[in-house]
Design brief:
Elements: E1 2-4, E2 9-15, H1 19-22, E3 27-33, H2 41-52, E4 56-60, H3 68-81, H4 85-99, E5 103-112, H5 114-121, E6 130-134, E7 151-156, H6 165-176, E8 180-185, H7 202-207, H8 214-232
Parallel strand pairs: 3-4, 3-5, 5-6, 6-7, 7-8
Antiparallel strand pairs: 1-2, 2-4
Length: about 230
């Protein structure tokens, strides 16, 4: 599916709830922001799991405006600056869901790693009703979380690069009175909820603090679904 205008669009993956499980709809929506690996099998699997739970899900391909390297640089630049094409693409994905007759108009945003940073930065001022960042960088600008929607966030204690992020986010959200559920998993590292094909680099990346952790991932799914049920349904 194409997302955006006819003159400037990107590809996206849409997962629709099966009627046999979720009824005929309309359903609340979820925009899923992929990690730096891009829109791949893991992102599609996540979208399908949301769909099976009764959410109309879309994953915009943020790397869809040209060559991979150039797009990665541009998207990471947007993440650092808090503005740019990536935010326009996320907004377009939300608008696509909101315009569909099978969507209730209540829409959340979910993001992983790089996408987790975007999920935090779009929690305010982008029309989302709830945000679920996974191991996302806490915004440097504290004002970025002013008036944010409810947030359910998940981090791994073995994630060296984001050490202390869960506590920092918890503090900022508490200070602002924003409904939240922030949890740090003691046995999890970075990307603990992503089933990525790491190939021969798997052992090295796990030592570096990356990798899937089933128990932590399943508990995070439970928390996210409970939080979304409260704020989107």
């Amino acid at each position: 599916m194409k997302i955006g205008s006819s003159t400037d669009s990107i590809d996206g993956y849409v997962a629709v709830p099966p009627a046999s499980v979720a009824g005929e709809g309309p359903w609340p929506g979820v925009v899923i922001v992929h990690d730096i690996a891009g829109l791949g099998d893991d992102s599609r699997s996540i979208a399908e799991r949301f769909a099976t739970a009764g959410y109309l899900a879309v994953v915009p391909d943020l790397f869809g405006h040209g060559g991979f390297v150039r797009c990665v640089r541009a998207v990471m630049g947007s993440l650092r600056s808090g503005q740019g094409q990536a935010f326009q693409d996320i907004d377009a994905a939300r608008a696509l869901l909101a315009a569909r007759p099978d969507c209730t108009g209540k829409i959340g945003v979910v993001g992983f790693c790089m996408g987790g940073g975007f999920a935090l930065l779009t929690a305010a001022g982008h029309g989302f009703d709830v945000s679920a960042p996974y191991y996302g960088d806490v915004p440097r600008d504290e004002a970025a979380l002013d008036d944010a929607c409810p947030i359910v966030a998940s981090y791994g204690a073995k994630d060296r690069r984001l050490a202390g992020s869960a506590a920092k986010l918890e503090k900022r959200l508490t200070e602002r009175g924003i409904p939240h559920d922030v949890k740090e998993y003691p046995d999890a590292a970075h990307s603990f909820a992503n089933r990525l094909s790491l190939g021969p680099f798997g052992p090295i990346l796990r030592v570096a603090g990356m990798g899937y952790h089933h128990e932590s991932s399943e508990d995070a799914w439970r928390r996210v679904f409970a939080f979304f049920a409260e704020h989107l349904r």
